[in-house]
Amino acid sequence: MRKLSYLLVIALSLSACRDSGDGTEEIQEEERFFNYQKMPKKLAINSVATPMMDEWAEFQELSSSFDVLYKAKNDEDLLLAIDDLIEKEKLLAKGTYPELFDKLQIKSRQRVLKTYMIKVKAAILSKNDTAEPTKEMIEAYNALRNQFNVIVNNPLDKKLILDEE
């Protein structure tokens, strides 16, 4: 009986190890390329806000780093661009904001942008698809740029509204 059980175990092991395919399968290595052409474009800043933005050096450096992001062709290029963007965002957070833009609406959108930058970097390092997190990051950047337009276009003064004299 013992010999029969050994024989049965060996037979099951051999049948489990047998290749179910016919051996003609090709192993395809998928090279992932970052397709920057499918990414959203940068939102234009209002002509009224543009002179103030031109004087804000930290934001100009962040904006120029985003231009480099659109030139990335693969995940390695994207990782370099993201590392640069994270550094530029840190400088922007530590820097001095123009008086008109030194508001919580701007700073909160900047934190959201930083979160998505880190999400893209994590996707690259874990070798996941980077298209969706990158798209979300660019949308967060566009929300930040749109908030500049909203602040410039908003003519209401909170002091006048809250002052009941």
Number of DSSP helical runs: 7
Share in β-strands? under 5%
Give the tally of β-strands: 0
Name the quaternary structure.
single chain
Order of helices and strands: HHHHHHH
Radius of gyration: 27 Å
Give the helix proportion (percent range): 55-70%
Question: On the 0-100 scale, what is the average pLDDT?
Answer: 82
Low-confidence stretches: 24-31
What is the rounded distance between the termini?
103 Å
Structural class: mainly alpha
Characterize the overall form. elongated
The biggest beta sheet reads: none
Main attributes?
165 residues
Description:
By secondary structure, the chain is an all-alpha fold. It contains seven helices and no strands. Helix 3 (57-69) packs antiparallel against helix 4 (75-94) and helix 4 (75-94) packs antiparallel against helix 5 (104-125). Mean pLDDT is 82; it is low at 24-31.
Please give a quick description of this structure.
The chain has 165 residues and is an all-alpha fold.
Strands, helices and their partners?
Blueprint: H1 2-17, H2 50-55, H3 57-69, H4 75-94, H5 104-125, H6 131-153, H7 158-162
Helix pairs in contact: 3-4, 4-5, 5-6
